[in-house]
Amino acid sequence: MPKLREEVDIDAPAERVWAVVQEDATNAPKWSSHVARIEKLDKEPPGKGTRYRYYLDLPGGFNETLEVEQGIYNKPKKCAGKFIRGPLKGTWSYTYTEKDGWTHVVYEMDFELTGFLRFAGGLLAGQYADGIRQNMAALKKYIESGKGPKGSKAAKPTKAR
C-alpha cells in the first residue's frame, strides 16, 4: 500500500491550526487544491465518528467523491481515520506538536487506489503526492496570513523561520 507523509511548521498555536483543519473542515477548499467542496455528514460537532464527503477535482479531469470517518479525535494533538467510500482505501492522520508557539503538522496516509483511479494510479500517485505537499504549504500560508478560525487561543504575530 503506498504511503504519503508530509510535514510543515506553522507559526501558530496548535489550537489554532486544529481549529482550521479539524473544526472548520468544510472550508478546506480555501487552502486545499483539488477539493471542490466538503460536506459534513453528521449533525453533531466534529469528533470521533464524524464523517465527511469530499468532492474532488483531480488532475486529468477526474471528478471523484470520497468519504472519510474520524476514528481518533484527540484535540489538539491528533485526528485520524479511514476512507470509508470512494476511490481510496486506507487510513489518514494529522498529528500536531506545538513548541514555542509554532505547530509542527504531520499528515500521513496509507492508501490504495480503487475503481477507475486504480488504472490511472501511476499517473495520479505522483500528482497526488505533489498536491498534498502544495496543500500543506497553502495551509501554512492561509493560517499565517490570519485567515480561518482562531481557535481558543489568539494567533500570535508571524516571525521569520
Q: In words, what does this structure look like?
A:
By secondary structure, the protein is α+β, with helices and mostly antiparallel strands. It has a single domain (3-144), classed as START domain (Alpha-D-Glucose-1,6-Bisphosphate, Chain A, domain 4), CATH 3.30.530.20. Helices cover 24% and strands 42% of the residues. The protein has three helices and seven strands, in the order βαββββββαα. It has helices at 14-23, 115-119, 121-144; strands at residues 3-10, 35-40, 51-58, 62-74, 78-85, 88-99, 102-113. A seven-stranded antiparallel sheet has the order 1-7-6-5-4-3-2. Strand 6 (88-99) and strand 7 form a beta hairpin. The termini are far apart. Residues 153-161 have low confidence and may be disordered.
Keywords:
161 residues; alpha+beta; Alpha-D-Glucose-1,6-Bisphosphate, Chain A, domain 4; 7-stranded antiparallel beta sheet; 3 helices; 42% strand; disordered C terminus
CATH architecture: 2-Layer Sandwich
Low-confidence stretches: 153-161
Query: What is the C-alpha radius of gyration, as a whole number of Å?
Result: 15 Å
CATH topology: Alpha-D-Glucose-1,6-Bisphosphate, Chain A, domain 4
Straight-line distance between termini: 35 Å
Q: List the secondary-structure elements in sequence, H or E.
A: EHEEEEEEHH
> How many helices in DSSP terms?
3
Going by helix content, strand content and strand pairing, the class is: alpha+beta
How many domains, as an integer?
1
Q: CATH H-level name... which superfamily? A: START domain
**In percent, how much strand structure appears in the residues?**
35-45%
Could you tell me the mean pLDDT?
Answer: 86
What is the overall shape?
globular
Q: Indicate the percent of residues in helices.
A: 10-25%
Oligomer: single chain
Strand segment tally: 7
Spatial arrangement of strands, main beta sheet: 1-7-6-5-4-3-2
State the CATH class.
Answer: Alpha Beta
